[in-house]
User: Which sequence fits this backbone?
């Protein structure tokens, strides 16, 4: 039986990750893998409701972090864990690194509290005690905040996060860099300031190097 695979896509708003989620799904399906494409916050009816609250309403940073993790818990139990148990490839547009980057580094919220919530929420029955569910691979689309801001300008009406300053996104990017430094084996840094095809080549190479795509 094939093992499930869990791949997350991360980066600041405007980094251009989302178009590659679907392309990677197609690449896995072409090799007869069953794929679940999903996103955070969201991915279940409840978590999508939480998403629209958290992306639009002003709230204090702890409330924001709790809603992100509440959505994640529902999403993990309803979608991600069942898909991994079936042997699916799960492609998730953002996961917990986003909470550390945005709520932790962007908003300046206590990283130790986030680590506590992470261990509560990502403890799942399928894994041995003391092990947390984490992505097998995290593709971090790294792009200078100024470039991302130019890409976002003129796009659809910005949500609460997309309206943040370049300075905020500089802190978010630093947060991703710190997560990658702490867990280098799980991460692949994708240089997102390249033409689309070159970014795609880097995405595929990262997955091939691990032996997951022919
Ligand atoms: P998206 O636009 O990539 O779908 O992401 C939604 C927004 O939510 C994006 O601005 C990042 C933010 N976000 C957080 O602040 N914390 C989180 O834990 C997640 C998953 C997303």
Assistant:
């Amino acid at each position: 039986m094939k093992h499930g695979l869990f791949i997350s896509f991360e980066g600041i708003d405007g980094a251009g990750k989302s178009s590659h989620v679907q392309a990677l799904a197609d690449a896995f399906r072409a090799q007869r893998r069953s794929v679940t494409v999903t996103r955070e916050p969201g991915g279940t009816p409840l978590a999508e409701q939480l998403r629209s609250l958290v992306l639009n309403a002003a709230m204090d940073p702890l409330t924001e972090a709790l809603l992100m993790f509440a959505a994640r818990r529902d999403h993990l139990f309803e979608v991600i864990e069942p898909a991994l148990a079936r042997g699916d490839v799960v492609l998730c547009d953002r996961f917990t690194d986003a909470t550390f980057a945005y709520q932790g580094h962007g908003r300046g919220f206590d990283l130790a509290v986030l680590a506590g919530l992470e261990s509560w929420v990502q403890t799942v029955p399928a894994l041995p005690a003391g092990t947390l569910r984490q992505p097998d691979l995290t593709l971090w689309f790294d792009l200078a905040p100024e470039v991302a801001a130019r890409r976002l300008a003129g796009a659809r009406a910005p949500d609460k996060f997309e309206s943040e300053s370049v300075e905020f996104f500089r802190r978010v990017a630093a947060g991703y860099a710190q997560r990658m430094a702490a867990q280098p084996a799980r991460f692949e840094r994708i240089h997102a300031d390249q033409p689309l095809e070159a970014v795609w080549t880097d995405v595929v190479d990262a997955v091939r190097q691990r032996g997951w795509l022919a």
